[in-house]
Amino acid sequence: MVTRKYRRKEIALAGGSLLLGLATLSFYIWHQSALISLGYQMTGLEMKIERLTLEIKKLETDKAALLSPDRVEKIARTELNLCEPKEGQILYLAIEGPTDHD
Known about the structure:
This protein is an all-alpha fold. It has one domain (8-83). The protein has helices at 8-66, 69-78. The protein starts with 7 loop residues before the first helix and ends in a 24-residue tail after the last helix.
């Protein structure tokens, strides 16, 4: 039986090809795992945006309720003891507009 001897060049070429293939496969696996990780981060951030949007809407509703004219008037009358001004208490100032000097 005849056995074939491999030359160093052939062994080096096969080893180099194997290393190149493993490096390519490793890069592909790393790339895919990085994409999956970014997908999870993006989903988490989208959920956070949705939660913050709902919180903003709630706060705007609370603000509108707190600034309603009826509520402000009630607080002014009960807590601050304010009342409607009497006839002589309101002063009007005449504001002159720009004059045309020719």
